[in-house]
Specification:
Elements: H1 3-6, E1 13-18, H2 47-53, E2 65-69, H3 70-79, E3 88-91, H4 97-111, E4 116-121, E5 125-126, H5 129-143, E6 149-155, E7 165-175, E8 178-187, H6 192-201, E9 204-214, H7 215-225, H8 227-239, H9 245-252, H10 261-266, E10 279-283, E11 288-289, H11 294-302, H12 306-309, E12 314-315, E13 323-325, E14 331-333, E15 340-342, E16 347-351, E17 356-360, H13 367-376
Parallel strand pairs: 1-2, 1-4, 2-3, 6-10, 12-14, 13-15, 14-16
Antiparallel strand pairs: 4-9, 5-11, 6-9, 7-8, 7-9, 8-10, 16-17
Helix pairs in contact: 4-7, 4-8, 7-8, 8-9
Amino acid sequence: MTQNQAEGLGFRFAPVILAGGSGTRFWPRSRRSRAKQVLALDGERTMIQQTVDRLLPIVSASDVWVITNDLLKEEIAGQLPDVAKEHILSEPAARNTAPACALAAFLLEKTEPQTVIGIFPSDHIVKDGKRFAEVVKAGAMLASSGDKIVVLGIPATKAETGYGYIEYGDDSGEIDGIKVRRVKRFTEKPHKSLAEAFVASGNYAWNSGMFLWSVQTLTNAIREHSPAIARQMEKIAAAYGTPEFERVFAESYPLCENISIDYALLEPRSAKGEHASEIYCLPGDFCWNDLGCWSALHEHVADCGPEDLAKKNIFDKTLQPCVDIDSQGNYVYAPGKTVALVGVSDLVVVETEDALLITTRERSQDVGKVVAELKLAGRDDLV
């Protein structure tokens, strides 16, 4: 009996962790060869280790798949010794989330076609692991019951323009006590005023990037909406398990369109503006944060209300005793140093052996531009 069945699912469930990103907004700690997902930003465990940890109440590590890149594959394999090495796949070229999801789906279609797939980014924070497991389990059960796409929607509490939004449709009952809503439409990264209107309406959730669907549902959707990607995946899957696999993988995968799963499969709509597929949303009410930049990490570590957040200084625990005079709302990471803050507010200060970042919390979303400038300057040693 597999652990999937022992936990009451009654079917195969394969979490697929997307771990190919470079995490440029966490420069200078995050680099191409030690991207955000392999860093321990908020504890002893790295981001990808935490991602696997919170799935273990539902599946065993041997059920987990990871899609990453050549620069991170060895590090990830070392951090996840219980994940089968053949389940850690390295993309020959970065092609965004649609080809990554398609890769896992088409390989599983060949080997275990009755599987339900869960798509999970490798760099999210979830504080309520018990609730997370309950929601994911319910979503997997719903996805196994037919040709359904299930998305986990995070309750939208503020007008974030960096997230996609899900508009709720009709109520669709409950599964294991968890409310299910139909999805009316997806809107990717709206402008500020539209995001404010969405939040004010109370009928929208943030798109978490976590999806569940059966292998057949996902492969069929790719064949329908992204036939060019499907053609390459058919070739890759046909070669899987043969001596030709690495060659075919290296030749075919870079030919896929560079497109997100949201734009490839979730944005297509009917003439009425509503999504034509059977898509459902479950509430991601498990204290989620995607830690997109240094200011988000400050907010997460501070773990306090908005008023206190503006006042609270966050010093990384590796620091020596620090001096804080008339300063508030700063985030400081400088291992082994004594840092003195005098009369400054809302700064982000991050030091590594070869680089120093100084910005404001408000501008921390722009740190990725530093990496772009360094690339243009030929400073590959710093990216």
